[in-house]
Amino acid sequence: MTSRPHRLHKTKDIETVFKRGRGFFGSFFQAKVLKTAGPTRFTVVISTKVDKRATRRNRFKRVMREIIVRHLEELRPGDYIFSVKPSAKNLYPDKIRYEFLAFLTQVKFIANNEKSAYTTHTAVPKNTLS
């Protein structure tokens, strides 16, 4: 669970980020970011256009929050709103992890150091095959 100082939960704060924040867009995800002097705060917003079932929307939120919390110290201070596009409707949890991490790397929110850790396949080095 996200610690309280890192939650962006007040309606007024969220509306401010939507109005004044800078937008970043990917294939399946989008983000609004507003630079602030305080701690890094974030929220995940998922519309019913993505999926009508709350269980599926909650799964998206859980997976996305997991990745954000792992990389929280890499994010610059500011307020972040992450949302899912309807095109991501059929993604499975492993693919959500991979694509969301790729999005964060693409828009340069985090470094490219752990992207390969979320792939579903692990490659065997050639020199170990005999």
Features:
130 residues, alpha+beta, Ribosomal Protein S5, domain 2, 4-stranded mixed sheet, 3 helices, globular, disordered C terminus
Number of domains: 1
N to C succession of SSEs: HEEEHEH
The CATH architecture is 2-Layer Sandwich
* Global outline: globular
pLDDT < 50 stretches: 115-130
Distance between the termini: 45 Å
Side by side, the strands of the main sheet go 1-2-4-3
Radius of gyration: 16 Å
Number of strands: 4
What structural class is derived from the secondary structure elements? Answer: alpha+beta
Content of β-strand: 15-25%
What is the helical fraction, as a range of percent? Answer: 25-40%
Number of helices: 3
Largest sheet: 4 strands, mixed
CATH class: Alpha Beta
Mean pLDDT: 85
CATH topology: Ribosomal Protein S5, domain 2
